[in-house]
Write a structure and sequence with these properties.
The complex is a heterodimer of chains A (510) and B (312). Helix content of chain A is 33%, strand content 20%. Chain A is built from 17 helices and 20 strands. In chain A, strand 2 and strand 3 form a beta hairpin. Chain A starts with a helix and ends with a strand. Chain B has helices at 3-31, 36-41, 47-56, 63-75, 89-124, 129-143, 146-160, 173-179, 181-207, 210-217, 222-259, 265-274, 278-306, and strands at 81-82, 87-88. Chain B has a two-stranded antiparallel ribbon. In chain B, helix 6 crosses helix 9 and helix 11 (222-259) packs across helix 12 (265-274). The chains are: A alpha+beta (510), B mainly alpha (312). The interface between A and B is large, with 57 and 58 residues.
Chain lengths: 510, 312
């Protein structure tokens, strides 16, 4: 062969390979219905008790069945692995009756497995989120299909806790045989999907669990959960057809995606973005100063700037998606004169404080800069400190901070979990590390959790919300929505307010 | 000194380099405030749980004790446990090394092809418009950040033309050539201007040398002079520069891996630093250092092959 002919052929071959149509090499080229999701955080563990991390929660929600499940629109919890349940008259003993169901390896799910999973979650020392289950003192298998749980007091929110991701049922035999670490990397599952592959730093692949207890579910063949840290890359991948679902779309790109034919509507979330303030340190150890800051901030403007109006300005520490949210509380309107007067009363005119902000978050940066400008008009100097998240968490937990931009979301619709997390001073986390502690609030929260009457509970929660807003337990700023975009081929999939794809069993892919 | 003993001596020189890097990364991570366990378990973990997990990873020990055990374990081939991934660091790294090595080599091949094409064209067309254009492109190329080049390539080739995928790393060699073409090109675009300007300058220098003039005076054709003499005599400075550029290239992959979502060591390093995943950062830093030392070693050998006058 002539040298020129060879070079031309080689160049042509190289170009052809490089430009193979994208569709030929895609994951779904074989016709299987694999749902490809992109998320900005990486899956680190598949063991439901070892994490409180967003990516882990999302994937584990698809892998493990729980005793009860929220319905897709999350108005109530309904049967899951437990077909029915009884509550003793004293409200302290819950008996769950299990249905016939199997793990992904075909072995039956027994009461032993349920008791093992719950005991592990509640009492194992490295269980990351046992706090909401404090009233639970005893879990035992009564017979092959009956589990009895005993609480130390009457605790109405208990049923809603049984749908939190970390109560996912794992097989006792497999965990004991493999050990925690090995199980976390290749688990046997009880939910709609089975584990196929974990590629660290890249993706988790799930396949259909043929033994899943719900007939005809899941409708899709599997899920590929991909880690794509860069927001814009993730959006590009959705646009290029490499993803079917893009989770965490930057607010400014939602309209563009919607115009391009993607389903990109904000989905309700139970998240609250806030400025946490340290009540045990200067200058926030003075109520008047806290109130001056609260009146000096324009929540509506911050919501408009950060969420582009896709969220709502906060009136309460509780998200509007939670039960017993008090709709009558107004969003505190910015009042510079009132703020100045309160500041003068506090005797801290000219005060300054350091506002910690996570260095990687553009949203926090926007909000922090706005707060800085708004409080400057009141006469308070805000020094923004951008630090990495590890350091920020440590300083928060150790109480070595004055104010910090932060957010939190609630797993259940019941507000008990939320309020115990953010304003209950008697808890391990000292009111989300703000050191806010009001005995009346603590008592009211306990009282509300033991109350079964809805109307009475609503009154108690309204009372709590009013007190903590008046006393500025934390400066709640806005409630964002989940910003996700779905390809038109994805049908019936919604992310619920508690960061779970409860509807994934019934979701389909055209 | 003969070449054989040079080859033996080099790995021994690596020992103090690695020790130095291990001490520095270890101390830097110790000095950085923040508790990695707290971040990994999340804000909802209790203090008791945090203390338990810290003790499990030996993070409650005094710093010198931690370092002693770290070095001892490294000598046994155990690079410690990743806090984030709850498993051996070696496993985490092995899973991600292939995409990075592939990307660096691919980027190197593309940048060398571009470098030679641009430098030869510019030098042989010296002073003409094409030479000016290449020089202009090179000056502009040095200043453009890789993430910007990457995003432009994604917009053009992935979203508009739909020729290449935005992300990923495929299962086969051919698939990888396709998946990693744009990331490798991005790296190539970052490195080529430096190499091409250097090579063009050397070509021109050599073309003006006495031996080239003597060749011309004997009536030898310009292409013959260039390909037989000038080209080979010009390679040495660029090969030396290549040693430096490879270090730059290794650093560059960190950004490129992020933009194109490639599950490599660069991504892992960023993640490790942000989450204080101590043993992961240390192991990746050591590995990158070994990469730089090996590339310098390869350049030394290549120099000796290209120029027999060079002593090792």
């Amino acid at each position: 062969m002539d040298r020129r002919v060879f070079l031309k052929s080689a160049a042509f071959a190289g170009f052809s390979i490089a430009t193979l149509p994208a569709t030929l090499l895609r994951a779904n080229a074989d016709g299987s219905k694999i749902l490809r999701m992109g998320y900005g955080s990486e899956v680190l563990t598949l063991d439901p008790i070892k994490t409180t991390y967003g990516a882990d929660i999302l994937i584990q929600g698809m892998m493990y069945a729980r005793l009860l499940h929220a319905n897709p629109d999350r108005t109530e919890v309904g049967p899951g692995l437990a077909e029915s349940w009884d509550i003793a008259d004293d409200g302290k003993t819950y008996t769950f009756h299990l249905r016939e169901a199997k793990f992904s390896d075909g072995s039956p799910i027994t009461a032993e497995d349920v008791a093992f999973s719950w005991n592990r979650m509640r009492f194992q020392k490295d269980s990351a989120y046992a706090a909401p289950f404090q009233p639970l003192t005893r879990i035992e298998a009564k017979d092959a299909k009956t589990v009895v749980m005993t609480l130390d007091r009457k605790f109405t929110p208990f049923l809603t806790l049984t749908e939190i991701w970390n109560t996912g049922i794992v097989p006792k035999a497999a965990v004991e045989k493999m050990g925690d670490d090995a199980f976390a990397k290749a688990p046997v599952t009880s939910g709609p999907f089975k584990f196929v592959e974990l590629k660290p730093g890249d993706r988790v692949v799930l396949g259909r669990n043929e033994h899943y207890y719900r007939e005809g579910e899941p409708k899709i063949d599997g899920v590929e959960f991909r880690y794509v840290p860069d927001d814009n890359t993730r959006v590009s991948m959705l646009q290029a057809g490499e993803l079917d679902v893009c989770l965490g779309v930057p607010a400014p790109r939602m309209a563009e995606l919607k115009a391009a034919g993607f389903r990109a509507d904000p989905e309700p979330s139970s998240t609250t973005y806030d400025m946490l303030i340290n009540h045990s340190a200067e200058p926030f150890n003075d109520l008047k100063f806290c109130q001056a800051v609260s009146y000096g901030i324009d929540r509506t403007a911050i919501n408009a700037a950060v969420t582009l109006g896709l969220g709502t300005p906060a009136s309460s520490v509780m998200s509007p998606t939670l039960d017993y949210f008090d709709k009558s509380l107004p969003v505190i309107a910015r009042d510079v004169e009132k703020a100045k007067a309160l500041l003068a009363e506090s005797g801290k005119t000219g005060a300054s404080f350091e506002l910690i902000q996570n260095a990687g978050s553009a949203d926090e940066e926007k909000a922090a800069v706005l707060i800085q400008a708004q409080l400057a008009e009141v006469g308070i100097t805000v020094n923004i400190a951008k630090i990495d998240s590890t350091q920020a968490w440590t300083r928060l937990a150790d109480g070595e901070y004055q104010a910090e931009m932060n957010w939190w979301y609630n797993e259940t619709r019941d507000p008990d979990n939320a309020l115990r997390w953010c304003v209950w001073g008697a808890g391990d986390n000292k009111s989300y590390y703000t050191r806010y502690n009001n005995e009346t609030v603590n008592k009211l929260i306990d009282e509300a959790s033991g109350e079964a009457d809805n109307a009475k509970r609503a009154k108690l929660y309204a009372q709590i919300q009013k007190i903590v807003v008046d006393e500025v337990a934390q400066v709640a700023l806005y409630h964002p929505t989940w910003l996700n975009a779905y390809a038109p081929s994805v049908k019936g999939l919604v992310l619920n307010v508690g960061l779970q794809f409860s509807s994934i069993g019934g979701a389909s892919l055209d | 000194m003969n070449r054989f003993s040079f080859v033996l001596r080099r790995p021994i020189q690596l020992i103090p380099v690695l020790l130095g890097i291990s001490v520095i990364t270890f101390l830097l991570l110790q000095m950085t405030p923040g508790d990695p366990v707290r971040l990994m378990l999340g804000p909802k973990a209790s203090q008791e749980t945090i203390e338990f997990v810290r003790a499990r990873y030996g993070l409650d020990q005094p710093v010198p004790v931690q370092y002693f055990y770290y070095v001892l374990n490294c000598l046994r081939g155990d690079f410690g446990q990743s806090i984030a991934f709850r498993g051996p660091v070696s496993g985490v790294i092995v899973a991600r090394i292939a995409p990075t090595v592939f990307l660096i080599l691919y980027g190197l091949v593309i940048s060398l092809l571009l470098t030679f094409a641009l430098a030869v064209t510019a030098a042989r067309q010296r002073g003409r418009w094409i030479d000016h254009l290449i020089r202009l492109v090179c000056v502009a190329g040095v200043g453009v950040p890789s993430y910007f080049v990457g995003l432009l390539l994604i917009m053009g080739f992935c979203l508009r033309l739909k020729i290449f995928p935005v992300s990923g790393y495929g299962p086969t060699f051919i698939n990888n050539l396709w998946h990693l073409f744009l990331p490798a090109l991005t790296i190539g675009i970052g490195v080529t201007p430096i190499l091409a300007r250097n090579l063009r300058a050397t070509f021109i220098q050599q073309l003006d040398k006495d031996y080239a003039i003597a060749c011309r005076s004997r009536g030898l054709p310009e292409s013959y002079i260039f390909s037989r003499h000038v080209f080979w005599n010009s390679l040495l400075p660029t090969v030396n520069l290549l040693g430096v550029v490879v270090a730059f290239l290794i650093g560059g992959t960190v950004v490129v891996e992020n933009v194109f979502n490639i599950p490599g060591l660069g991504n892992l390093l960023i993640r490790g630093v942000l989450t204080h995943d101590q043993f992961v950062v240390q192991a990746v830093a050591l590995l990158l250092a070994v990469g730089v030392v090996i590339s310098n070693f390869a350049v030394d050998i290549l120099t000796a092959i290209l120029d027999p006058r060079v002593e090792l």
